[in-house]
Design brief:
The chain has nine helices and seven strands. The protein is α/β, with parallel strands linked by helices. It starts with 5 loop residues before the first strand and ends with a helix. It binds xylulose-1,5-bisphosphate (XBP) and magnesium ion.
Length: 253
């Protein structure tokens, strides 16, 4: 096994609980602004998360949950415009600073920076959303801490396809053995696993029942010294929160 050279972070659900409190309300605001009476409540949104990508999710909703809706002639642009509006609302919500990073995220990233560990963001979400989250949580220059921001439509096949991880590794001139991924969902894990990456999972309310068999470690959160994680699967080797030392051990195991 090679030495660990890079940490690859998913965003939504992993860095912050953006799905329930960020994306979902932003979709609803866009629907309202467009004069649509659609409302994605928390339970429905959980079902819609089966499909990644906001534009893809809107289409899935109309195909499976709102089949009576009469689609406008220019359906593609209708979905595109609705999604652009959703991105505006989402980035506004981030600017209001309402979505904090999850426990341990800021500390682990700081530790990685201090040790010169390479980092990338690997996500399905729109690039503007990544910028808005990072800038409003980690600070104005935090995007530059990540060597690659692999996001949105960069690859046509979104997670669970492995393409976005493969693309990020290529950009960094690394192989899957050199890196480790951090994910929160089944679709994200399928993507990192498909790219042959070892993966550490931090679950959330939407993903706690997902199947993560094959992941190296499944935790409820990264945690802190005073906010220990719960180990759901795997061996945390006596650690009580996810620090870089444990990440290295998991990678080497
Ligand atoms: C993230 C997603 C995205 C966001 C919405 O998945 O599924 O679709 O919910 O983002 P992952 P956009 O965490 O696995 O990357 O609306 O910008 O597409
Ligand atoms: Mg995710």
């Amino acid at each position: 096994m090679t030495t660990l050279q890079a940490l690859l972070f998913d965003v939504d659900g992993t860095l912050a609980d953006t799905e329930r409190d960020g994306h979902r309300p932003a979709f609803n605001m866009a629907f309202q602004a467009a004069g649509l009476d659609w409302n994605w409540d928390e339970a429905l949104y959980g079902e819609l998360l089966a499909v990644t990508g906001g534009k893809e999710r809107i289409r899935y909703y109309l195909e499976k949950f709102n089949t009576d809706f009469i689609r406008p002639d220019d359906y593609d642009n209708f979905v595109k415009d609705l999604h652009l509006s959703k991105t505006d609302f989402y980035t506004q919500l981030m600017q209001e600073g309402k979505i904090p990073l999850r426990s341990g995220v800021e500390r682990l990233i700081a530790e990685a920076r201090a040790e010169g560990m390479r980092m990338a963001v690997v996500t399905t979400t729109t690039p503007a959303n990544v910028t808005a989250l990072l800038v409003n949580t980690l600070g104005p220059d935090s995007e530059s801490w990540f060597e690659v921001i692999a996001a949105g439509d960069i690859v046509p096949a979104k997670k669970p396809a492995p393409d976005i991880y493969i693309w990020a590794l290529e950009q960094m001139n690394l192989t899957a053995d050199d890196a480790i991924a951090f994910e929160d969902s089944f679709n994200g894990f399928k993507s990192s696993q498909g790219a042959n990456l070892k993966t550490i999972i931090t679950i959330n309310e939407y993903t706690k029942e997902d199947d993560f068999s094959g992941a190296e470690l499944v935790l409820n959160q990264m945690g802190e010294a005073n906010d220990a994680f719960i180990v759901l699967d795997g061996d945390a080797q006596g650690h009580t929160y996810l620090d870089l030392a444990l990440v290295r051990k998991i990678h080497a195991a």
